[in-house]
Amino acid sequence: MVDDSMLIRDGLSRLLEDAGVTVTHRLADAAPLDAIVTSDPPDVVVVDIRMPPTFTDEGLRAAEGIRAEHPDVGVLVLSQHVEPGYALQLVEDFPQGSGYLLKDRVTNIDVLLDALRRIAAGELVIDPTLVARMVGRRRRTEPLERLTEREREVLGLVAEGLSNEAIADRLHITDRTVESHITSVLHKLGIPDDGRGHRRVLAVLAYLRRAE
Which of 29, 161, 166, 169 lies in disulfide reach of 125, CB 3.0 to 4.6 Å? Predict the structure, then answer.
């Protein structure tokens, strides 16, 4: 758990420990993080974006370094504010085992635990508040405008990192219907099948780029 705020750092650590999660280290600075992860790799590192000394993007840089050097270690980046550029950068570079959530949301232990489990399993987690903000922005003409309302809704949930089963439960439709919508979305966005399972991630990136 890496956050310069003792309240956030200790508060989230206590919530996790009360829920049965082992918090191996609590750090106020990202500087020693690489050495710690190398010597004692955790399942997931939780780190604030803005860390000492400049309080700009030290946490994000640390997260990117961990994903590059330790691909089996997940990273959950926390932010006090909605910052689409940071989220897009993380997702674009490391679409698996990564997450971006607002601090207001992770005070709900169920949300935090769900995010950690999914990231540890190699999934992508994006704060729904960020997705909603992007949906509401005025956009230039682009392929996404060809999507139906339901297809946009499905893609929005994909952008949050939800599985087909979770999307089906949320929208009260079948898994097969979800898969059909996703197939249509990928076709309309012109995303080819690369044979490596990255089409869904590319669709998420196309969705997120609407905020640029």
Answer: 161
Q: Do residues 3 and 78 make contact, with C-beta atoms less than 8 angstroms apart?
A: yes
Looking at residue 78, its pLDDT comes to 93
- What span, in angstroms and rounded, lies between the C-alpha atoms of 155 and 186? 10
Place of tokens 């993080």: 33
Check if the beta carbon of residue 75 is closer than 8 Å to that of residue 98: yes
Which CATH class name applies to 133-211? mainly alpha
Q: For the structural domain made of 6-126, what CATH number should be given?
A: 3.40.50.2300
- The model carries a pTM of 0.80
Provide the mean pLDDT of the chain: 86
Cβ atoms 181, 154 nearer than 8 A: yes
pLDDT of 85 strictly over 90: no
- In this structure, how many other beta carbons lie within 10 angstroms of the beta carbon of residue 147? 18
Q: In what order do the strands lie in the sheet with 124-126?
A: 44-48, 74-79, 98-102, 124-126
